[in-house]
Task: structure prediction
Amino acid sequence: MTNMLHNGRLVIIAGLPESGKTTYLAALWHLITARTHTTKFTFDSLVKGEHKHLNALAERWRQGHVQIHTETAANSVVDMNLLDSSGEQVRLSFPDVSGESYRDMWEARDCTTELANLLRSGRGLMLFVNTDLIQAPLLTVQLAAQAQAIGVPLPPGQSQPWNAREAPTQVQLVDLLQLCRLQPLDIDTKRVSIILSAWDKVAIELRTPQQFLRERLPLLYQYLTIGNVWDWRVFGVSAQGGDYIRDDKPPTPEELAKVEELRNLDDPVRRISVISDVDHAHDLTEPLAWLLE
Ligand SMILES: Nc1nc2c(ncn2[C@@H]2O[C@H](COP(=O)(O)OP(=O)(O)O)[C@@H](O)[C@H]2O)c(=O)[nH]1
Ligand SMILES: [Mg+2]
Result:
C-alpha cells in the first residue's frame, strides 16, 4: 500500500449501493475545484482516479442530472489528498464508489484484502445512508394486512424465503459496522460519521439529523448509542438540493421546473447543505474535520 503519505490521516467513504456516494463525490469535486467558497479542506492532488472522469461527474451534477451507475472497477476507486488549514495533508478515499464491495460484506460475508487493509489504516469512516431509500423492516403481519387491504389476501401457509438484499437498511448497516469491529477486520478507528444523504427529501419533516436517525433507523441509533463501540456524529447532507433528472424517466414539467430552479441559482454550490446539530453550511468537507480531530 502506498498509504505512508497521509500519516494515518485517512478518511474512508463507505455505503451500500445507491447511498449517495457518487453524488457527494460529484458535488465535492465541483466545490473543491471551483474554489468559489472557503472549505475546511482544499484540494491538493489526485492519487487514484482521473480528472476527466471526475470533471464529467461534476458536469452532470451542475446540469442537474442524476449520476449514472456505470462505475467500472477502475473508476469506482477514487483517492485524493486534501489539505487542512495548516497545510497538512489528509487523504480522502472512495475505495468503492459503486458500493458493491460493502454490499458483499453484508450479503456474501466477504471483503477483499485491499478494502480490508484500507479500512484498517483509516482514521475515520463516513458511512452514507440515503434518507430517501431506507428499507424499513416489514413484518409478515404488516404484509398480510396490506394484502388484505388491497383485496388480495395472502393464501394461508405461504412462506417467503429470507433474502439478504431485502433486509432492512439499518440491519445491513449495523452488521457492516459490527464486522469492522470483529476479527478478521478488527479496524482500529472508532470514529464514524453517519451521512444522511438526500437530506432535502426529509428536511420538510423538520427533524434534526440526530432525531431522524433515532426515529427512522432506531436499531442503528441504539447500536451506536448503547454499544459505546463507536465515536460517532450524524450529518444531514443534501448534495443536490432537490431531485435531479433521471436518464430512465423523462421529467414531468413540474420536476423540470424544480431542476430549473436549482440550475438558475447563481452559484451551484448553493444547492448544497450540510446540517449537523450545531451548524448549517455548504461545506461538504465539514464532516471530515471532526473525524480528523
Ligand atoms: N433529492 C436528492 N437525491 C439525491 C441526493 N444525493 C443523491 N441522491 C439520489 O440518490 C440516488 C443514489 O445516489 P448515488 O450518488 O448514485 O449513490 P451511490 O450508488 O452511493 O453512488 C440517485 O438517484 C441520486 O440522484 C440529494 O442530495 N438529493
Ligand atoms: Mg454510484
